[in-house]
Design brief:
It is a single chain. By secondary structure, the protein is an alpha/beta fold. About 20% of the residues lie in helices and about 25% in strands. The chain is built from 9 helices and 17 strands. Strands 1, 2, 3, 4, 5, 6 and 15 form a 7-stranded mixed sheet that branches. A 5-stranded parallel sheet has the order 7-14-8-9-10, covered by helices on one side. Strand 5 and strand 6 form a beta hairpin. Helix 1 crosses helix 8. It starts with a strand and ends in a 17-residue tail after the last helix.
Length: about 375
């Protein structure tokens, strides 16, 4: 049986980023478990999908590249592109892991995590049983799509299952969900000459409503939408899909209600596309967390489970109240916070973490976060 101070579950942006910080601490015996290969989720992105946050080689001037997960690195410099594809970004993560000589074990699936009575954790994995004092859950969301949001959802195709948008048949498509994934799908399908209808309960679109990019379409997406030919994309804002059923002619009927209680039917000849988000990997260990009213997990100020001491969360599933850390440049700000908490309990020198604080990767005061743009 292998024993560690810390096991990181997931070899994506959060897992590799956390590994870099623990590696810099120098006195933590840790490993990173990845069931596929480093950057697997990014490698599963549709071919046309790009990072919506721009990369730029601004590190030397005090501004860490927005898509960097480790100090002294820049996807813009490594990849030579501003908006990396999923394959590009996986290359960056693999380069960082190799440069930092991170102890990544690929092809290892975590089946169960169990809290031990005497403290620490036992992990049942495809490579055998492992024990660790701490666990950092960084398995992400993309490989865990939300597929059961309403009756008949099984007739739709989740956007994360699509490898190239040219695979979508027909000359018209209905998309359920109008945030980044839905808008991105609509843009690429419109470029292929298809008529696209987006059904979105919130009606997010080009109007400004919030300065938090977690709830507002990015400028990158708005720019692309503005370049789509008029009439190619139709938005049904304020509508929620309640069910889908097959029709006698082989098509699909969607029943919607709007925010005022009105009803509407939408018919399409081809399977609708689900862009309704992800349930996330935390469903595997949800019993180890207390839940908030919205169904998310409750975390301490150190991103640790309030129910299971020693179990931390890193990545897009992290939230504190109304603050969502679902972008890389957001959740990387918590890497140093988790590392500091682990180092303190192990009596490890944390001098090196000052670099992370200086680079904005050790944000402990959340009062500065939120909507604060005046113009």
């Amino acid at each position: 049986m292998n024993h560690y101070d810390c096991v990181i579950v997931g070899g994506g942006a959060a897992g590799i980023g956390m590994g870099c910080v623990l590696q810099d601490l120098g006195a933590v015996n840790f490993t990173i478990l990845e069931r596929g290969e480093i950057g697997s989720s990014f490698l599963q992105w549709p071919k046309e999908m790009r990072m919506i946050t721009p990369s730029f080689t601004s590190n030397a001037y005090g501004m860490l590249d927005l898509n960097a997960i480790a100090i002294h690195t820049s996807p813009a410099y490594t990849l030579g592109t501003e908006h990396p594809s999923g394959e590009d970004y996986a290359d960056y993560l693999q380069a960082v892991a190799a440069y930092k000589e991170l102890p990544v074990q690929t092809g290892v699936d975590v089946i169960e995590v169990r809290r031990l009575e005497e403290g620490g954790f036992e992990l049942n994995t495809s490579a055998g049983v492992m024990r660790s004092r701490f666990v950092i859950w960084a398995a992400g969301e993309f490989q865990y799509p939300r597929l059961d949001g309403f009756p008949g959802a099984e007739y739709a195709l989740h956007n994360s299952f699509i490898r190239e948008w040219s695979e979508i048949a027909g000359d018209e498509t209905v998309i359920i969900g109008g945030y980044e994934s839905g808008a991105d799908a609509a843009i690429h399908l419109a470029k292929l000459g298809k008529k696209v209808t987006i059904i979105d309960r919130n009606g997010r679109w080009l109007e400004k409503g919030n300065s938090d990019p977690s709830v507002e379409l990015s400028p990158f997406t708005k720019d692309r939408l503005n370049r789509v030919e008029d009439g190619q994309i139709q938005l049904l804002p304020g509508h929620e899909v309640h069910w889908i059923e097959r029709t006698e002619d082989g098509g699909y009927l969607l029943f919607c209600e709007n925010i005022e209680g009105g009803e509407r039917f939408v018919k399409t000849a081809h399977p609708p596309i689900l862009a309704t988000g992800f349930q996330g990997s935390l469903t595997m260990i949800k019993h180890m967390f207390e839940q908030n009213p919205q169904g998310g997990v409750l975390l301490t100020e150190k991103d640790e489970s309030t129910l299971t001491p020693g179990l931390f969360v890193s990545g897009p599933s992290v939230s504190h109240g109304q603050l969502l850390f679902c972008f890389i440049y957001k959740f990387r700000q918590r890497f140093g916070v988790i590392a500091e908490a682990i180092a303190a309990r192990m009596d490890v020198d944390t001098t090196v973490l000052q670099q992370y604080r200086d680079q904005g990767m050790m944000l402990s005061d959340l009062s500065c976060c939120g909507e604060d743009c005046k113009c």
